[in-house]
Write a structure and sequence with these properties.
single chain, alpha+beta, Metallo-beta-lactamase, Chain A, 3 domains, seven-stranded mixed beta sheet, 30% helix
């Protein structure tokens, strides 16, 4: 996977730092707390920058840093250096995103110490909010579950908390051996995400499992589905110090339960799921698939565990799968939506388990609930219901196109060639299923 080099500015004044919250519509890290910055462009000069403090750094990185703070904060870094308002610019740390990330950024942080606190003018296209805070306050914000944050940022804040004048913290990239372990990431405090290689729908290659539960509450692993026995062994090794109480399956598709009975037997824990999910899995896999495990049926409203002292409840989310269940704390500070959406691309809605009308209704229901963070089974957590709203609008637009083509006498196969020109032909059968689901919905509603 291509690595994208980028830079970030950590402005420091009187023990405080300037942090930003990214806009929820952005493709990369939507709604995450971070620092001003962005990727190094090809047009950024590789020549050494002429300004003091910048002339000793990598030329392209320094030119990118100057450009990014000008674009995002309307802050002229060379001019503020010349005026004496910038006391120093120093390399702070580097973080390379793991191979599991949908986009791999190599981010270099630069510490910019100031003589006085400036008034920044934020680029609202990329930044939802900006605020001066201390490293400890920002960490507390994350620990309460009020922020999305990548682990290297947390680690850097801890170092700044311990050493407020520190710089050159070195490489803060996540370190794990994927030949032995499954990655384990905490982007939202108290919701550990394990992106496990799975036999899922391309272009995705992983299904997120989630580890939930406060101390003293049931510890629940959601949707473990390793693609092979080798990956199962890595998952076991990763969980070797965890005391689990149950596995929970969101729905019946194999990339959400493969090898889960074997894992449950090994851990001696029950599996929780909806009755619809139990029936569909046993119909596909046989009645002995879960033998001799204890199966507990869960339904909407049931309490599963606790997060940050509040109950995590079960929600019914049919559409992609009739028996799909989702999870959310009572405050709706996050909503684990399974395969309702994914961070890249769209999910397939196909009979017999898929129902396009139910899918629309579920999207509308969760949008109305307005959870603060959406957590999909494929991809990364994202702030706000923006992706739900854009998915719903995309489906509505597609349905209008299908209705128009039907009126013109086009067959479903002809519609695929017209509507899905941008996808690989080996995905056409799945596109055809979605078109057929739209047609069923339109017939039910009397639209065709």
């Amino acid at each position: 996977m291509k690595i994208i080099d980028s830079v970030a500015a950590v402005f420091c004044y009187a023990g405080q730092i300037f942090a930003v919250r990214r806009q929820s519509h952005l493709e990369a890290f939507p709604g995450y707390d971070s620092f001003p910055g962005g990727k190094i462009d090809r047009e950024d000069s590789s020549l050494q920058h002429s300004a003091p403090f910048l002339c000793d750094g990598d030329g392209q990185a320094m030119h990118a840093l100057v450009r990014e703070v000008e674009e995002e904060l309307a802050y002229d870094l060379p001019a503020e250096i010349a005026s004496g308002q910038v006391v120093s610019v120093k390399y702070l740390a580097t973080a390379l995103a793991p191979a599991t990330a949908p986009v791999r950024f190599r981010l270099k942080f630069y510490r910019i110490d100031l003589k006085s606190q400036p008034l920044f003018h934020l680029d609202c296209g990329e930044i939802a909010a900006g605020f001066w805070t201390t490293p400890r306050q920002l960490l507390n914000h994350f620990d309460r579950g009020d922020a999305l944050m990548v682990p290297p940022l947390c680690w850097m804040l801890e170092k700044l908390q311990q050493n407020p004048q520190g710089d050159n913290f070195g490489d803060l990239s996540p370190q794990f051996d994927e030949s032995l372990f499954v990655p384990r990431i905490e982007l939202l405090s108290g919701v550990q995400m394990l992106p496990i290689p799975s036999n899922t729908f391309p272009p995705e290659k992983r299904t997120n499992a989630f580890l939930l539960g406060d101390e003293g509450s049931p510890r629940v692993l959601v949707d473990p589905s390793p693609e092979s026995r080798e990956v199962l062994m890595k998952l076991r090794r990763t969980l070797r110090h965890d005391q689990l109480d149950a596995l929970f399956l969101t729905h019946h598709h194999p990339d959400h339960h493969e090898f889960s009975p074997e894992l449950a037997r090994d851990l001696n824990v029950p599996i929780w799921m909806s009755e619809d999910t139990r029936q569909r899995i046993t119909q596909q896999q046989g009645l002995d698939y879960f033998s001799p495990l204890q199966i507990q049926i869960k339904q909407a409203g049931d309490r599963l565990t606790d997060w940050k002292g509040e109950s995590v409840r079960v929600h019914a989310t049919p559409g992609h799968d009739a028996g799909q269940l989702a999870l959310a704390p009572e405050s709706l500070r996050w909503f684990l939506v399974g395969d309702l959406i994914q961070s890249i691309g769209t999910v397939v809605i196909s009979a017999p388990e898929g129902d396009m009308a139910a899918y629309f209704q579920t999207l509308e229901k969760i949008i109305d609930l307005a959870p603060e963070v959406i957590i999909p089974s494929h991809g990364m957590p994202m702030r706000s219901t923006f992706r739900l709203q854009s998915t719903l609008q995309h489906r509505r637009d597609r349905e209008k196109s299908i209705q128009k083509l039907f009126a013109e006498g086009k067959t479903p196969n002809e519609m695929v060639d017209i509507i899905y020109q941008e996808i690989d032909q080996h995905l056409y059968p799945f596109a055809l299923k979605s078109i057929e689901s739209h047609l069923v919905k339109l017939r039910q509603e009397g639209q065709i």
